[in-house]
Amino acid sequence: MTDAPSESELLSQKIQALTVKIGTWPDEPLRIGEEHLDDLLLWCVKQGASDTSVQTDRPIYIEVDGILFPVTRRPLDSADMANVLARIYGPDALAKLASGRDLDLSYEVRPDRNTRVRFRVNITAILSRGRDSVQVTLRTLPNLPPTLKDLGIEEKIVENWAPRQGLILVTGPTGSGKSTLLAAGCRMLIEREQGCGKMLGYESPIEYVYDAITGPRSLVAQSEIPRHLPSFAAGVRNALRRKPNIILVGEARDRETVTAAIEAGQTGHLVFSTVHTIGVAATVRRMVSVFDPAERTERAFAMMETLRMVVTQALVPKVGGGRLGLREFLVFDENVRETLLDLPIEKWTAETQRLLTRYGQTMEQTATKAFKAGLIDRRSYLLLTKGFSGDEADYGRDPDELTIDDF
User: Fold this and answer.
1) What average pLDDT does the chain have?
2) In the CATH scheme, what is the code of domain 13-141?
């Protein structure tokens, strides 16, 4: 009787199979010109690439199921990269990078009149072999946002996705699927019988578009930051002059944006936004900390009166391939808000964690359920539970030596 293959052996077999399947770009030219980029990107998408990375002095890489694969035979030099930048951004890309900025934008390929393939793009200056160079990352975006059912979103989240007014936050680290979850929720609002009214979106860049989603009582307008307006805070101020029902703010990243989003929620609007935090309690702490000490208490209480739900998502490798979204969430109903408002803001983080266990769903609960169902492996389970609990007691131990009984 032979032993079952280990997780590392299964991963190695998967990598070997994908390497053979993907191969390299069959139409690779001697020099990558502007005219070649769209064909390359379409080929990458057909191979199942979630991301395509173009970097000076390296081959082009694609990411499939969280694994990187080189898809060109030779590294790109500075002339290749200049052509790529000119096609994606324009002739002044290098000048913008030299000023110390990275560039966020969207890029679209139209292979025919009825097909659009869209990418979220980040262009960042790097150092390679002792000289200034560039890395371009292109995230493949679906033509149509998924539905909440497609994503397996918990029923309690769906039920509380559309309060009459207030603030809903979707949080998580970079690449955790925040924008996808938010777009799926917007799609549900647009398609419902009563529609969503007027929805105004402010994003940097625009990732999902809703052109193909029909809703006779829904009107959606999307603006890109800073292409159409200078900042998210300016976007919220702009929205308040346009009589919207729903305001979508791509990211609540600073005091001005958070303040504007809170004020919009207080004046009868439903506001959605994302925050780069890990965990519901950490989100509450982060939202409070953006305010200056002199105004912190007043602003924090205004934020808590406006908050309606926080959903934190993480994407982890799924056993058998692909990735799985796991979520921690808490609905800030009247009881939860009043409990926190009766406490000094210094105690909100700890109390939110307690309320989360009692009234919401913790990441540990979600990960445990997925692990017991055989959907994720032990290492992913431990990384999730340790990362969200903040307990470092077991960080020094090999995750492969731990079992679910350790928790």
Assistant:
1) 86
2) 3.30.450.90
CA 101, CA 301: separation in Å to the nearest integer? 35
Q: What is the reported pLDDT for 173?
A: 86
Using the Cα atoms of residue 31, residue 32, residue 35 and residue 40 in order, give the sign of their dihedral.
positive
Residues of the chain with CATH 3.40.50.300: 155-401
Q: What is the side-by-side order of every strand in the sheet holding 307-317? A: 218-224, 197-203, 246-249, 270-275, 166-171, 307-317, 323-331
Beta-sheet strand order (sheet of 61-64): 67-70, 61-64, 51-55, 131-141, 115-128, 103-112
- Report residue 359 CA to chain centroid gap: 25
130 φ, ψ (degrees, to nearest 5)? 80, 5
pLDDT value at residue 177: 85
Cα distance between residue 300 and residue 346, in whole Å: 11
Q: How many helices (H) and strands (E) does the chain have?
A: 14, 13
CA distance 139 to 122: 9
CA-based end-to-end distance of the chain = 32
Q: Pick 155-401's CATH classification: 2.60.40.2470, 3.40.640.10, 2.60.40.3080, 3.40.50.300.
A: 3.40.50.300
Residue 235 pLDDT > 50? yes
Q: Give the predicted TM-score (pTM) of the model.
A: 0.75
Q: Which of 76, 338, 336, 106 is nearest to 203 (CA)?
A: 106
Map residue 55 onto helix, strand or coil: strand
Identify residue 116 by its one-letter amino acid code. Answer: R
- Whether the upstream peptide bond of residue 5 has omega within 30° of 0, thus cis, is no
Give the distance from CA 355 to its chain's centroid: 26
For residue 14, give every residue at least 6 positions away whose Cβ sits within 8 Å of its Cβ, in sequence order, or none: 65, 67, 321
Spatial separation of the C-alpha atoms in residues 16 and 5, rounded to whole Å: 15
Residues carrying CATH 3.30.450.90, the chain: 13-141
DSSP code at position 29: -
Task: Please classify residue 216 by burial: count the beta carbons closer than 10 Å to its beta carbon, then call 0-12 exposed, 13-18 middle and 19+ buried.
Answer: exposed
Let me know: does 204 contact 196? Beta carbons within 8 Å: no
Q: For the segment 294-335, what is each residue's pLDDT rounded down to a tens digit?
A: 888 899 999 999 999 999 999 888 887 778 899 999 999 999
DSSP string of 206-229, one letter each residue? -----TT---TTEEEEEEETTTTS
